[in-house]
Here is the input.
Amino acid sequence: MEHLMQKSYQKLELGAVLQLLADQAGSAEGKARSINSAKEVRTRKDVTKEKVAEFRNKGLTIAEIAKKLNCGINTVNRRLGMKDY
Here is the structure.
C-alpha cells in the first residue's frame, strides 16, 4: 500500500503533497487552509443578467451567448436563472 502511495505522490508537486498530508492528518493548519479556500468565491462581474437577457431576446442560443461573452455555458445558465429575468 505504501509503495502505491509513493508512486502517486511522485506525480504531485512537493507543495501539493505537503498540503495533502497536512489535510489527511487533520492538523489545525490543514483545516484552516480548507476553510479559507472555501471562502474565496470568484464571480464574474463582466457578464450581467441584462447582457444575457438582451442576447436571449434576440434569439441566440445559450452556447452562442457564451461564445459572444467569452464565458462558459454554466455562467450563462446562472445568469438566466437569476430573478427579474
Summary: The helical segments are 2-11, 14-25, 28-39, 49-57, 62-69, 73-80. The two ends are 54 Å apart (CA to CA). The CA atoms of residues 62 and 73 lie 6 Å apart. The first helix runs from residue 2 to 11.
